[in-house]
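Students often ask what a 'structure token' actually looks like in practice. Rather than answer in the abstract, let us consider Integral membrane protein, a protein of 116 residues. Its sequence is given first.
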Amino acid sequence: MAGRRPFGVTLVAIIAWITGALQIIAGVLLMIGGEITLGIVAMLIGFITILVSLGLFGGSNGARILTAVVFVLNIAGSVYLMVTEPAQLWSAVGSAVLPLIGLLLLFTSRANSFFR
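Now compare that with the structural description of the same chain:
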């Protein structure tokens, strides 16, 4: 890790942390509602998301790569939805925007310097 963390990386890490926290809350609510297995899975995904966000805060290139893979999968899912469900076009476009912005922010020249 070299230098100060760029704002874009901080923004992506904050969004990931918030997403993880919301996934944990959703998992707890699912468990309260009787969906034990789904609740546990949601909570595990939430904990992993928070760990990855902490890695981003700390300059872990592995966390950046894992986040990029998840973003690419989200974009691919959105493209698939655009092709297979034309009625969902704008929803799919909207779902692809944040991961695309996240990818761009994680691979700027300042971010590349930070993660080295």
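One point worth highlighting: The two ends are 5 Å apart (CA to CA). Ask yourself how you might have guessed this from the sequence alone, and why that guess would often be unreliable.
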